[in-house]
Write a structure and sequence with these properties.
Structural class: mainly beta
Radius of gyration: 24 Å
Strand content: over 45%
Largest sheet: 18 strands, antiparallel, barrel
Distance between the termini: 48 Å
Shape: globular
């Protein structure tokens, strides 16, 4: 079994602090105590009470003793002109026994997506709260029933969480999980319609509020389980330790250190296992009452054991950087701009180096209607591995070839509050991928309509 750092997992956001940095953080605690900046504790009783009052304002629609529950149901209809992320093209591949002609075709389909959402809140005590957020759905493909959901879909954001407040400490136990099949989220995938995967992150985080500084330490266990046979070589586990320290020199600024240590190991010996760590610094500042900036950067290292059949000898020794600018222009428009450089685990190789820029905006310009827009551009380099042929009988194409990718697109969404219980939605999304490898380009248009009823 190989051991590899899970950079694609939510817990490995490039740049949280590792075990070695935890010692530094704890040693810094007596120093920051001596500072005289005073603010409300992030872990104290007042914060817990404020959180409880905020929760009380959430429109839960069912009371079961001390528990509050909110139910909603959504029915969506989607047209997708390229569900399998393919292009209409052919290529003659060299093979033992003679060349093999491979032809790919786009597949379009109409998809019906029912979903039920449950949000449960249980204030066990005045300070300690249990929470469940769950979205359960299904996908019916009208023309290609082989792509129907195998069991159910669990929407991203589904979680179990339990908060405990003890003095200057806030302890969070959590289990975050999702079951998805849409392949467009992975920049390196092409010629795939069903990228079914279950992801689960379970662990604990502890926030220690020292008034002039906040120390956070966490541990998570991560699981990735493929629900399709073609990707079962990606099944893996990871152990992750994260930590950070943030100091507040003023009421509008926070600076600190962050980092992570991750050990990931695969069930099969195809991709390489590895141990990775990263560490760096960050700055958060409220530039004006309408403009907020967060900047982070540091060093990222991943050492792969090179025992897997992928035969990719490359390691990661690189910087990471990311910036997020949030801007509330006025009561009608809010926007955010993010950009970054990071390394993620590969699907066909050790890793992918990704540069990205994204812009989102929310336009509240029509009565009872919210308009949202999204734009993105990605530039990615695969470290080199193998690509699957999109036809049966030929297991690999272009083995050990690195791939360079440009991907860009955007989306437009409309939400309309028809009644206090009914919300209507419309969304158009476009994605374009350009690759330097044959049969790996695609363009995709998606149009969807949905209605949500909140009980």
């Amino acid at each position: 079994m190989s051991r590899q750092a899970s950079l694609n997992s939510p817990a490995f956001s490039a740049g949280k602090i590792g075990l070695a940095l935890v010692v530094l953080l704890l040693c810094a605690a007596p120093i920051v105590r001596a500072q005289d900046a005073i603010r409300p504790s992030l872990a104290g009783e007042a914060t817990s009470e404020a959180r409880r009052q905020s929760i009380d304002n959430i429109p839960y629609n069912l009371q079961l003793g001390p528990m509050k529950v909110r139910f909603s149901a959504t029915l969506g209809f989607e047209y997708n002109d390229n569900v399998n992320l393919a292009e209409d093209a052919s290529y003659l591949f060299p093979a033992i026994g003679g060349p093999v002609l491979v032809t790919t075709h786009q597949q379009s389909d109409f998809i019906i997506r029912p979903q039920v959402n449950v949000n449960l809140l249980w204030p066990i005590t005045q300070l300690n709260t249990f929470r469940l957020d769950l979205g359960i759905g299904y996908a019916f493909y009208m023309n290609h029933s082989e792509y129907d959901t195998n069991d159910v879909l669990l929407s991203p954001g589904s979680q179990l969480a339990f908060d405990i407040f003890v003095g200057d400490f806030r302890i969070n136990f959590h289990d975050r999980f999702s079951l998805e099949q849409d392949p467009v989220a992975e920049v390196s995938l092409s010629n795939v319609a069903d990228y079914g995967r279950f992801q689960n992150t379970a662990g604990v985080s502890v926030l220690w509020d020292l008034n002039a500084a906040v120390v956070t330490v966490g541990y998570d266990h991560y699981n990735f389980i493929s629900t399709t046979d073609v990707f079962d070589y990606l099944d893996r586990n990871a152990e992750m330790v994260t930590a950070s320290i943030a100091i507040t020199p003023s009421s509008t600024m926070s600076v600190g250190l962050e980092g992570a240590w991750v050990d990931t190991y695969y069930d099969q010996n195809i991709l390489n296992d590895s141990i990775g760590y990263s560490g760096g610094a960050f700055l958060e500042t409220q530039i004006t009452s309408y403009l907020k900036l967060r900047v982070a950067g540091g060093y990222q290292n991943i050492n792969f054991d090179n025992t897997g059949l992928v035969n990719d000898p490359h390691n990661v020794s690189d910087y990471y950087a990311n910036v997020l600018l949030s801007h509330r222009v006025n009561s009608q428009l809010t926007q955010s701009l993010s950009a970054g450089h990071e390394n993620q685990l590969g699907i066909n190789s050790n890793f992918i180096t990704l540069n990205y820029i994204r812009h989102t905006a929310n336009w509240n310009i029509l009565y009872h209607t919210l308009l949202s827009t999204e734009l993105f551009y990605e530039d990615a380099d695969d470290s080199g591995g193998f690509f699957f042929v999109p036809v049966p009988g030929v297991p690999l194409i272009n083995p050990f070839a690195p791939e360079h990718i440009h991907r860009y697109g955007g989306a437009l969404s409309l939400g309309y509050q028809l009644t206090p219980h009914v919300t209507l939605g419309f969304r158009y999304q476009y994605t374009q991928k350009d690759s330097d490898q044959v049969l790996r380009d695609y363009s995709q248009n998606r149009v969807s309509l949905d209605g949500t009823y909140s009980f």
